[in-house]
Amino acid sequence: MVTASRVQITVLRGRDEECRAIRRLLDGVAGGGSALVLHGEPGSGRSALVGYAHRHAEGCAVLAAAGHAEEAAVPYAGLQRLLDPVLDRIGTLPRPQARLLRRTLAGGGCPTERRLALCLAVLRLLATVAQDRPVLCTMDDVDRGDPPTAETLAFVARRLRRLPVAVLLTAATASPGGLPTHRLHPLDERDSAALLADRLPEPPAPAVASALAAAAGGNPQALVDLAGTLSHDQRRGDAPPPVAPPVDGALGRAYRARLDHLPGDTRRVLLLAALDPDADPDTLVRAARAGGAAIAALAPAEVAGLVRVEAHQITFPQPVVRVVVAATAPLAERRAAHLLLAGVLDDPADRLRRALHHAAAATGPDPALAAELEAAALADESDPADASGALERAAELTDEPARAAERRVAAARYAWQAGSPQRARLLLAGLGAGPLSPCAAGRAELLRGEMALRCGPVPAAAPALLAAAEALAGTDRALALVALARAGELASYSGQQYRYADLARRSRALLRPGDPPVTELTSAYLNGVGATLRGDHEHGGPALRRAVVLGGQLSGPALTPAALTWAAAAGLLVAVDGPAHRLADRAVELARSRGELSALPRALELRAVAEYWLGRHEAAAETSREGLRLARATGQIATAGVHLGMLAVLAAVRADRQTCLRRLREIGEAPAPHSRPRALAQWALAVLDLTEGRHAAAAARLTGLARPGTGHGQVLVQVMATPYLVEAAAVDPVHRPAANAALAVFDRWASSTASPSRRALSARCHALLARKGSGQAEEHFHTALRLHPVDAGAFERARTALLFGRELRRARRPRDARSHLHDAWAAFTVLGADAWAEQATAELRAAGESVGAPDPAAARLLTGQQLRIAQLVAEGATNREIAARMFLSTRTVDHHLRNIFHRLGIRSRTELARALG
Predict the structure, then answer these.
(1) Would you say residue 69 has pLDDT above 90?
(2) SS3 for 331-348, per residue?
(3) CA within 20 to 30 Å of 562's CA: 30, 352, 568, 571, which one?
C-alpha cells in the first residue's frame, strides 16, 4: 500500500471528460465512496487514466493491481495481488470471514455457496483499511484477469455508498454491470496532432499529422508508436508516413498477446478477414467453408476484442490488428488464404479484388496476371488508392522493364489522385534510369510538376511542366495541353502572369480541327486567360465564354475535375459567377465521387472565389475551411496557403480582426513574395487598415500587389481588391494616380462583362474619386445602387449605401444621408456584419439620428457627431486619427472636442473616457 502524493501531471490529450470524472470520484470519497469503469480498446489511454487517478489521490491509501491473461485461469489471483499490501489487516475481521478470505487468497478456492460471504469479507477489509484514511482501489484490465476477481470487485463496487472507498476499474471488452461507465472515444484530429507534438522534438507537418491521425484511428498508443518510428524526412513530409502502427510497437504487442491465446481455427478465419479489407460476412463464410472452417470460429476473436462481425461488414478495432494478424501468419498460410478468397470472389464487380488476391499469392513474374491487374484497375476508377496498389503490383509482376515503368507511372498518378503525394514520389523515384517511352516520361514529368505546384517546392514545377508539354506534344496533345494549363496555374500562383502569352501560343500550336471538346476547352481557357491578362478583352472574353459553355457540356471520360475547374476559372474571369459556381461545385462533387482527393482543394478554391463574388461570405469561408483541411491532409502546402489567404480576406472584409490575423500567422513567411498567398495576405491587411482608418497604409499595400500592364505580380488579386484601393486612395491623395490606373484596368474588365455587380463596383469607385459633394459623385453613387443585384451581393450594396450616406453627411445633407445610412445599417444587421453595422450607426448619429440602445446619461447631452468623436477619444484615438476616420478637418475635431468638454463639465480626455463608462 502506498500513499499518493501530488506530482507534475502529464497532459492526457482528449481525455478531459474522463479526468473530470476521476476527480469527482476522488473528491467525494471522504463523504462516501463510489465506483467508475473506464471502457476502451487497448491503447485508448485506460492505464494512463489509472496513473492519473494515482497522482491525484492525495491523502488516500492506494491499492492497485492489473489483470493478466496468464492468470485468467487462476481464481482470485488478481484479488490476491490487489489486497497483498493489507493482508496483515485480515486478523481484524470476524474469525469466519478471516478464515475464508485467507484460504481463498492462498489458493484454496471458494465454494459457490460461500461467494457472498467472501465478497462481504473483502468489503469489510476495505472498510477497516479506510478507517485510517480514504482508500482508492484500482484494477486495470479487469477483464483480462480471472473472472472471480472481476465479479468480487464489481460486487464490492456496488456497495460503497457509506464507505470512504473509491473503486476504479478498466476494461477493454465486457464491463462489469451496474456501475457508472465512461467509454473512451477515439481522439479527434486536433488532439491527435497535439499528442504528436508532445512526443516529437518538433511538431510534424500538418499533412503528416493528418495522415498519422488517420493511420492511428484516434488511438493514443497507436499515435505514440507511430511517432516513435518517424524519420526526420517523414516528420517534415519529405517521405511517406507509415500507413499503420508498427507491429512491434506497444499496441501491436498488446494485440499479439491476445492473438496468441486464440484457437487455430479462429486464427485461420481471422486471417481471411485480415487479408481482404472489403470482405463481407457472406464472402468470409464461403472462404472459411472452402478452407474447412466455419465463421463461428471467429467468436473467441470477438470476445478478445480483435474483430467485430456485424450484419454487413467485418471490422477491426485498429488498423494494427489487421497488420499483426497478417504478419504473424506463416507465408504458406497467407498464400493459401489469398487463393481461398480469390476463389470465392466470382462476381464481375469483384474483378480487381480477385486479381489482387491472385497477385498476392504469386511468387514470380506473371505477365498475364499483370495485364489482368492493369485492366481491372483501369476498369474500376472509383478508388484511386486500390488502383494505385494494383498497378504497382502489376509493375512488380511485369518482366518487360519499359512496360513495368509505364505501370509504375500510372500507379504514381493514382496515388496522387488518392491524396498520397509521398507515395507517388516514392513510386516515381523507383523508376530509376531504366528505359522509359517518351509518353511515359512526359506523364512522369507532368505528375512531378503538378505535385510541385500544389505541394512544393513550387519553383521546381515550371521546368517539369514545360518538359512534360514538350515530351507529350508528339504523342498525346490533350495531355500536353493539360501540362500547359498547369503551367498557367503556376504562373498565376507565382505572380508571373506574363508567361501566359507563351503558354497560349504553345496551346494554339497543339490544337487541330475536330479535336474533342475537352481539348478545345483547355486551349480556349489558356488563350482566354492570356488575352485577358494583357487587357485584350475583345479576344479574351469570347474564348473564356466558350470554355464555360464547353465545361457545361462535358460528359463521359472527358468529364474530369481538372476540366471543370478550368471552365469555372474561365467563368470567374468573365464574371458569370453563377455558372462558375456551378462548374466548381460540379468539380467538387465529381472529385469526391471518384475519390480524387488531390483535385478537391483547387476545386474548392474556385468555389470559394465564386461565393465571394456572389456575396455569400459565410459560404465562401466554409468552403475555404474545407479546402484548407483537405489541402493539409493531402500535403498540398501551396494550395493550403491560398485557402488561408482567402480566409484572411473574408475575415477582414467582415472586420473580424482576430480571425484575420490568426489566419495570416498560419500562412507565415514560407510563400514567395509575389505568390498568391502573400498577395491575399496583403489584401487582408489592407482591408483591416481601411476599416480602422489607416487609409495611406491600406493604399500602399494594395498598390504593391501588381504592376498593371506588365503581367508581373498578382494582377487578378489586385483587380479583385481594386474597390478597396480606390476607397483608401479617396482619402489619401498621394495614391490617387495608382488608384486611377488600377481603376482603368478594372473598368476595362468590368465593361467587357455582362455583370451588373462589377459595373456597380466600378460606378462606386468613380463616385469616390469624383470631387466631394459634386453632382458627378452623386450620379455615380445612384448608378451603383441601381446596378447592385437585388438577389445577390447584399453586402456590397450595403457598403455602397454606407459610403454614399457618409458623402452626403459630409456635404451637410444629413436628411438625404439618413435614408441610405438606414439601408446600410439594416442590411449589415441582417447579415450579421456587426462591425459595419456599428459604422452605419455612428454615421447615423453623426447625421443627427440616434440608433440602437440608449446611451449613458453623459452621452445623452451630446449630438450624434459629438458622441462619435467622444467615443473615439475614449478608445484612445488622437485628433488626427479621428479626423481621418470621420472625414473631418483636425480643426473641426478640436472645435467639437471643446464643446464636448464644456457640455459634460470635464477638463481632460481621461475624464471623458470615465464619463462615457
Answers:
(1) no
(2) HHHHHHHHHHHHHHCCCH
(3) 352
CB 580 within 8 A of CB 610: yes
Among 111-120, 216-225, 234-243, the minimum mean pLDDT is found in 234-243
| Distance separating alpha carbons of residues 377 and 415, to the nearest angstrom | 12
CA gyration radius, the chain: 35
Residue 884 Cα to chain centre, angstroms: 41
Instruction: Give the separation between CA 759 and CA 910, rounded to whole angstroms.
Output: 47
CATH code: domain 858-915 is 1.10.10.10
Written as nine digits, the cell of 580 is 462558375
Nearest to 56 by CA among 128, 6, 21: 6
- The torsion defined by the Cα of 877, 880, 881 and 882, in degrees rounded to 10, comes to 80
Burial class (CB in 10 A: 0-12, 13-18, 19+), 3: exposed
Which three cell numbers, joined as nine digits, stand for 109?
Answer: 478456492
- Residues paired with 713 in a beta bridge: 496, 706
* Helix %, strand %, coil % of the chain (to 5): 70, 5, 25
Q: CB of 175 within 8 A of CB of 38?
A: no
Q: In angstroms, rounded to a whole number, what is the distance separating the alpha carbons of residues 279 and 272?
A: 9
C-alpha pair distances (Å), 446 with each of 44, 396, 428, 449, 460: 43, 23, 11, 5, 12
What's the mean pLDDT in 725-748?
90
Alpha helices in 695-793 (DSSP H): 695-703, 715-729, 736-752, 756-769, 775-787
Q: What is the mean pLDDT of residues 40-46?
A: 88
Quick one: pLDDT at residue 210?
Answer: 81
Contact between residue 76 and residue 104 where contact means Cβ atoms under 8 Å apart:
yes
CATH architecture of 2-183: 3-Layer(aba) Sandwich (3.40)
Cross-strand pairs, 684: none
**Burial zone of 536 (CB within 10 Å; 0-12 exposed, 13-18 middle, 19+ buried):** middle
Q: Whole-angstrom Cα distance, residue 620 to residue 614?
A: 9
Contact 676, 493 (CB under 8 A): yes
Cis peptide before 457 (omega within 30 of 0): yes
Find the distance separating the first CA and the last CA of the chain, reported in whole Å. Answer: 60
Here the cell at position 426 is: 516514392
Angle at 288 between CA 286 and CA 294, to 5 degrees: 105
Residue 143 CA to residue 151 CA, distance in Å, equals 10
Long-range contacts of 813-817 (CB under 8 A, 24+ apart): 814/847, 814/848, 817/843, 817/847
Q: Where are the domains of the chain?
A: 2-183, 189-246, 252-344, 439-510, 516-553+560-627, 702-846, 858-915
Cα–Cα distance measured from residue 685 to residue 682, given in angstroms and rounded to the nearest whole number: 5
Instruction: Cell numbers for 834, please give them.
Output: 456587426
Average pLDDT, the chain: 87
Which residues are CB-contacts of 874 (< 8 A; sequence separation ≥ 6)? Answer: 912, 913, 916
Read off the C-alpha cell for 559. 468529364
Q: Is 516-553+560-627 in CATH node 3.30.750.24?
A: no
Cα distances (Å, whole numbers) of residue 196 to 15, 251, 277, 417: 15, 16, 27, 27
The stretch 773-793 carries a mean pLDDT of 87
pLDDT for 108 beyond 80: yes
- Cβ count within 10 A of residue 578: 12
516-553+560-627 shares its CATH topology with 702-846: yes
What is the CATH code of the structural domain delimited by 702-846? Answer: 1.25.40
**If you average pLDDT over residues 210-222, what whole number do you get?**
86
Q: Give me the pLDDT at residue 584, please.
A: 96
If one counts every other C-beta atom within 10 angstroms of the C-beta of residue 286, the result is 18
CB 161 within 8 A of CB 32: yes
